[in-house]
């Protein structure tokens, strides 16, 4: 028996067909598979609140805990996309991202593990490790931003709304980390290229570099810059001389891995625009920071964020974090929800 089909005017058929195609492709990163704000609203309503509580506790205990959480999300997104690969442990046959050289002192894995444990208790098998990284980064930077922490920015105390709905990958490779992560000695062309390969613009590059308003570094990350930058074993000429002298005194032991260098001396626990002031004074810690002055667009933005009200930067930072959080994500039925973030299921 033939099913009676209502004759549809052709103007309706095309949109309908497109909608069908879109829903079929829904699991490939479009349609249903898209990230969205509040992905866990029904499946785990307290997910974001639980992450916030544990991040707040960690930062309360140790105010320097905010920076590593922000950095982890960046390292995750730049290697294979934001799919939690930065959290996977090495195995006998495989050296994972976290054991690659640019891991340089990645930290805060324990905070992520605590969050995961709490979430598995509340809503087993629901919240991905990749999303935990994205939410925790948002919370860490929110707590470090004065106007936000004081409740003068948003009702919920967030710097920006974080998209969720990521799923976890199953591959983590040290080699890929080395290949994909920007290097502190990178010049502007290389930085632009690396960000472009993740669909991130010159603006994203400049804004996200502002993350270096919080946190610390260690001597090996700038050793070459202090003593061995050119063939004549000079220091990096783009580094302010007095500042270079000061850093050389602090990093006098070759291969010193323990001395901590504040990104922004005296203010490395508050997220603000102080970083851009340092960059214009050639006192950014890394060559890659100073490199932002070597392109008209990025340079213009550095000065704009230095000179505009802080809200300009804060608003743009939220936008660029959302952009970064979309890089190479797995959605829909791709990947898995890891039970423990350090191991694939
Ligand atoms: C533009 C290219 C970038 C380069 C070359 C770079 C490089 C570095 C290096 C070398 C360190 C210090 C590691 C150490 O010596 O312990 C560092 C720390 C840090 N980076 Fe970046 N980074 C870049 C972009 C970003 C982005 C996009 C974010 C986040 C959105 C970020 C967030 C951080 C944070 C928060 C720290 C401090 C971590 C801590 O205190 O433990 N960085 N970065
Ligand atoms: C996974 O790696 C982390 C740090 O790299 C380490 O602290 C932890 O003990 C490892 N977990 C297991 C179960 O091996
Ligand atoms: C980073 O990699 C080094 C080896 O390159 C390793 O010794 C160290 O444990 C790693 N750090 C973390 C946090 O896994
Ligand atoms: C200086 O840099 C050169 C070239 O990168 C390297 O071969 C050499 O080992 C470095 N020397 C020191 C003392 O770090
Ligand atoms: C960049 O955008 C293009 C087009 O939307 C997409 O196909 C590609 O997967 C994106 N790349 C990354 C790394 O997200």
Automatic annotation (TrEMBL):
Compartments in which it is found: Secreted
Co-factor remark: Binds 1 heme b (iron(II)-protoporphyrin IX) group per subunit. Binds 2 calcium ions per subunit.
Residues making up the signal peptide according to the UniProt record: 1-26
EC number: 1.11.1.7
One GO BP annotation of this record: hydrogen peroxide catabolic process
Span of domain Plant heme peroxidase family profile: 34-345
InterPro entries (UniProt xref): Haem_peroxidase (IPR002016), Haem_peroxidase_sf (IPR010255), Peroxidase_pln (IPR000823), Peroxidases_heam-ligand_BS (IPR019793), Secretory_peroxidase (IPR033905)
Keywords carried by this UniProt record: Calcium, Disulfide bond, Glycoprotein, Heme, Hydrogen peroxide, Iron, Metal-binding, Oxidoreductase, Peroxidase, Secreted, Signal
Keyword rRNA processing among record annotations: no
Positions annotated to bind Ca(2+) 1: 76, 79, 81, 85, 97
Site, as annotated: Transition state stabilizer: 71
GO cellular component: extracellular region; plant-type cell wall
Residue sites binding substrate per the record: 182
Binding of heme b, residues: 212
Cofactor(s) this protein requires: heme b; Ca(2+)
Keyword Heme (UniProt): yes
Stated name of the protein: Peroxidase
Chain's gene name: LOC101776191
């Amino acid at each position: 028996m033939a099913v009676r089909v209502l004759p549809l005017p052709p103007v309706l058929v095309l949109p309908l067909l497109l909608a069908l195609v879109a829903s079929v492709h829904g699991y490939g990163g479009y349609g249903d598979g898209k990230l969205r704000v509040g992905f866990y609203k029904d499946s785990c309503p307290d997910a974001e609140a639980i992450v916030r509580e544990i991040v707040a506790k960690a930062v309360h205990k140790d105010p320097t805990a905010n920076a590593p959480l922000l950095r982890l999300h960046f390292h995750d997104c730049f290697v294979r996309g934001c799919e939690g690969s930065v959290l996977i442990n090495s195995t006998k046959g495989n050296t994972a991202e976290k054991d690659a050289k640019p891991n340089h002192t990645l930290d805060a894995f324990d905070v992520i593990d605590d969050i995961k444990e709490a979430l598995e208790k509340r809503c087993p098998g629901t919240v991905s490790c990749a999303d935990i990284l994205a939410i925790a980064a948002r919370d860490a930077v929110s707590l470090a931003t004065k106007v936000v922490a004081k409740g003068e920015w948003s009702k919920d105390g967030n710097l920006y709304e974080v998209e969720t709905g990521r799923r976890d990958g199953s591959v983590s490779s040290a080699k890929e980390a080395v290949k994909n992560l920007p290097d502190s000695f990178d010049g502007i062309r290389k930085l632009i290229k690396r960000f472009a390969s993740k669909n991130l613009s010159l603006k994203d590059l400049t804004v996200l570099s502002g993350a270096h308003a919080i946190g610390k570094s260690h001597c090996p990350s700038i050793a070459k810059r202090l003593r061995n930058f050119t063939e004549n074993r000079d220091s990096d000429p783009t580094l302010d001389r007095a500042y270079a002298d000061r850093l050389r005194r602090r990093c006098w032991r070759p291969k010193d891995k323990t001395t901590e260098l504040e990104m922004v001396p005296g203010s490395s626990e508050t997220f603000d625009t102080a970083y851009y002031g340092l960059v214009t004074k050639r006192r950014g810690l890394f060559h890659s920071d100073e490199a932002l002055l070597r392109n008209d667009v990025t340079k213009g933005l550095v000065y704009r964020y230095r000179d505009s009200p802080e809200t300009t930067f804060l608003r743009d930072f939220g936008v660029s974090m959302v952009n970064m959080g979309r890089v190479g994500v797995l959605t829909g039925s791709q990947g898995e929800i890891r039970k423990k973030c350090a191991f694939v299921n």
